[in-house]
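Translate sequence into structure tokens.
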Amino acid sequence: MKNKIFVVVYGTLMTGESNYHVGASAISRRSCTIKGKLFDTGWSFPAFVPEGETSVRAELLEVAPTTFADLDRLEGYPRLYTRQIVTATLDDGTTQNAWVYVMTQLPTTAKLIPGGDWCNR
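Result follows.
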């Protein structure tokens, strides 16, 4: 793939979660962390805010353009979520810039997930 597309997922798109199937065709999937805050929206999915220094547990996906479009549809891009570039830190310490979905407006009832891990909330 000439232009690689990297996307960080931190919630229902992660391995073993309810929307894993949407990104199941990823070229690669690696464990990583990103810096910020993770919130439980109360709607059965999380929201990431790229502020703060908490290590948010995530997965780095390399995807084809068709899968990227599928992810955009699932995330309600650009209405519910926008995309930003963040730096993902892989388990071996290397880094990769990647897209991440950021909720356009947190619900007032959203609760911080202190450990930054949706799977162990």
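Note: The chain has one domain: 5-105.
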